[in-house]
Amino acid sequence: MSTETAATVGRPARTPAAALRPARTVARWAVRHGLPGVLLERGARQGDLVGRLLRDRAARDEPYALYEELRARGPVSPGSIGLVTPSHAVASGILRSDRFGVGWDRSAAPRLIRWALRFGDEPDATGVAEPPSMLVVDPPDHTRFRRLVSRAFTPRATAAFEPAVQRTADALLDALELRGGHVDLIETYAAQLPVLVIADLLGVPTERREDFLRWGAAAAATLDPGLSFRRYLTAERALRAMHGFLREHFARLRREPGDDLVSLLVGLPDDEALTERELHATVMLLLGAGFETTVNLLGNAVVLLDAHRDQWDALVADPSGWDGAVEEVLRHDSPVQITGRTAKEGVTLAGRGVRPGTRVTVLLGAANRDPDVFADPARFDIGRANAREHLAFSAGIHYCVGAGLARLEGVIGLRTLAERFPVLRVSGRPVRRDLQTLRGFEHLPVTLR
Ligand code: HEM
């Protein structure tokens, strides 16, 4: 006699892997977000400034006063999770030092955590803040990945994108001309320009851009420590959808390669070939980093220049100032506020002994307002001579691969916007994204004319 019941007839049989999936998700969330969340929360209650920065929405929206409180405690101070630095000199030293890495030694973690990491590991749920993403692996793997993608971002290759960036900006602004006076500038322009440019570069169909934007927004949250389970689930669904898309995309390019970077990566000779997992990690990072950051640069720039109207007017009158303006926006309100490194060996930081395995939170947004480097750092000044000394693109071996492209998109995107709509004004309250690592706007209402 059959053991099937009415309830199971017709339902596809669950594989053992699928049956374990919910437990894996919980394990992954617990080690990557649940536990850090508890530590940060406890720290925040006890007055720890990093805890407050990462858990308190108001501090996250306006972190600069808190950075100054931290600076008053010295160039390096203890936080909920290791040490923290708001200092430009210390941050720059750490980022350029081979005594610090982005990876961490799992073998030193408690047994339960090691087990949860192993059990929770699932390629299709892996985000850009997890290995083998280039962002979080040390040499020699980092060197191998970086060498492959750098080919597409040499200064010459970047300069060659210029006509495409200009064409894309023009087309988006043509559409805005028709939309009338009042729009959300993030939705209609700042988010669209970078996603269209990177989609072109990676040979992914631009018709899918709304999917990428939705997935990217959800996945960007995984850069932040301490996500709630609910937000983590949303992010994980987006990651699975992105991996599914990438799988199909790679298969298509293997059949019909184009002259884009991804075709090059899927067609590498055996001695250079990336594993499937490495390929997913690399392309997902390029796609996500390609638009999740530059949108913030564009939005932050418009808000700052609206608040400093004389500087906007000066740029409208003399567009040669845009290069400097973009550097000052990157410095003053950095799209990536936070990164971190782990000491690989015992080191001394600003006179303090640091044990191997110690995590240091590097506050890029605070380093970029260090008065030892930038005079009157809270002042927004597009003519600032040394704005380019900022660490908004990091430094050392993980220095942003796409910095040249981001600058190009920033300058062309903003210059063209100002040329078309010189009287543009912010016309409602801009809404910040609910993110910690990335800083930018979710909505930016403007009147164009
Ligand atoms: C304003 C825009 C951008 C900002 C502020 C920015 C910022 C950063 C920062 C701070 C890092 C290093 C993080 C660390 O050291 O831990 C980084 C790495 C990276 N960025 Fe960007 N980025 C931007 C645009 C782009 C674009 C357009 C791409 C295009 C593909 C891109 C691709 C990457 C990649 C692949 C890495 C990893 C590099 C490595 O680990 O060696 N970024 N970015």
UniProtKB/TrEMBL annotation:
KW Zinc (keyword) present: no
Molecular function as annotated in GO: cholest-4-en-3-one 26-monooxygenase activity; heme binding; iron ion binding; steroid hydroxylase activity
InterPro entries assigned: Cyt_P450 (IPR001128), Cyt_P450_B (IPR002397), Cyt_P450_CS (IPR017972), Cyt_P450_sf (IPR036396)
Alphabetical list of CDD domains matching this protein: CYP164-like
Entry keyword Oxidoreductase: yes
Superkingdom of the organism of origin: Bacteria
Keywords associated with the record: Heme, Iron, Metal-binding, Monooxygenase, Oxidoreductase
GO biological process: cholesterol catabolic process
Similarity-based family: Belongs to the cytochrome P450 family.
Protein name: Cytochrome P450
Organism: Blastococcus mobilis
